[in-house]
Amino acid sequence: MSVPTVTLQGGETMPIVGFGTGGLDGGSLDDAIHTAVEAGYTRLDTAEGYGNEATIGDAVAEYDRDDLFLASKVLPSNLAYEAVLEACEASLERLGTDYLDLYLIHWPNPAVSLRETLSAMATLREEGLIRSVGVSNFSAYQLSCAQHISDVPIAVNQIEFHPWRQRPSLVDYCQETDVVVDAAAPLARTELFEDASVQTLAETYDRTPAQVVLRWALENDVTVIPHSSAPEHIRENLALFDWELTDEDCRRLDELDRDHSVYNLSPTDWTDDTFGISR
Questions:
Q1: Which of 211, 210, 220 is CA-nearest to residue 180?
Q2: Using CA atoms, how far apart are residues 250 and 278, in angstroms rounded to an integer?
Q3: DSSP 268
Q4: Which three-class secondary structure state does DSSP give residue 114?
Q5: pLDDT attached to residue 73
């Protein structure tokens, strides 16, 4: 199966469905990576904060690197200029690759100059260590600032996006400025599967709830990175291209928006691994 792609700012192409690896590690991740690649996934999404880059590197070593799109993210605690360079080089070593197709700022860090971070991203891009630059969990305001201060195209904004949290103003801004919206937690961490409207549409289309929600995202021009350790779910989550939702059924899912976040993170705990900011 050949997964459709989207052209990023800067000219690189990215598969519109990727395999997310957050929360996976060890043997279950190794098996999942092999299942995913054999099913047709070529985009693999990770982050230094996931702690699983070495496992992914071992799993993909047997595949042709040029056939894969590898994305990783730098922690907000590593956004100073030299720290970005060091974090990227460490990610490359763990992944066993000479370059990343996409490197993202995982979360913004208000204690570090965004100009400094993006300057480091520019250096990495100039040296061929990364091909595209992205951000994650950026508001429209933060994204606009990044676009204003850097000549490096911001290709992707990876955000929480699903029918319960649609964030229309942010999505509109991204799409108006040619930034691809990549849906993290596109299945609301399975919470959506119990939604009556989702279940009804799954029965109507003879598809899984996950497939209905993922197809809806694609029809909103949002790319997705579902993840699972179950082989049947990995394969099902890629079976999205030979059918469509009607406009009316897309609107039914549009109406589910309640700005409900499934993230269990506290951006005010400045001491943890995700948001750690040194004094």
A1: 220
A2: 45
A3: T
A4: helix
A5: 98
Q: Where are the alpha helices (DSSP H) in the chain?
A: 26-39, 53-60, 81-95, 114-126, 140-149, 168-176, 196-205, 209-219, 231-236, 247-254
277 with 109: CB under 8 angstroms?
yes
Q: Provide the domain limits for residue 247.
A: 13-254
Exactly one of 41, 50, 103, 173 is catalytic; name it: 50
For residue 35, tell me if it sits in a domain: yes
Tokens in use for 165? 């949290």
Residue from 11, 31, 67, 70 nearest 229 by CA: 31
Question: What pTM was estimated for this model as a whole?
Answer: 0.96
DSSP sequence for 142-195:
HHHHHHHH-SS-EEEEEEE-BTTB--HHHHHHHHHTTPEEEEESTTGGGGGGG-
Backbone φ and ψ for 15, nearest 5 degrees, come out as: -60, 140
d(CA 43, CA 58): 16
Taking only the tens place, the pLDDT of each residue in 154-188 is 999 999 999 999 999 999 999 999 999 999 999 99
Rounded CA gap, 19 and 63, in Å? 16
Residue 268's pLDDT is 62
Q: Is residue 117 part of a domain?
A: yes
Can you give the CATH number for the domain in which 181 is found?
A: 3.20.20.100
Structure letter (DSSP) for residue 9? T
Q: Tell me, yes or no, if 50 is annotated catalytic.
A: yes
In a domain, residue 260? The reply is no
User: Which H/E stretch holds residue 103?
Assistant: strand 102-105
Would residue 273 count as lying in a domain? no
Number of domains in the chain: 1
CA 119 to each of CA 82, 162, 267: distance values in angstroms, whole numbers, following the listed order? 10, 32, 24
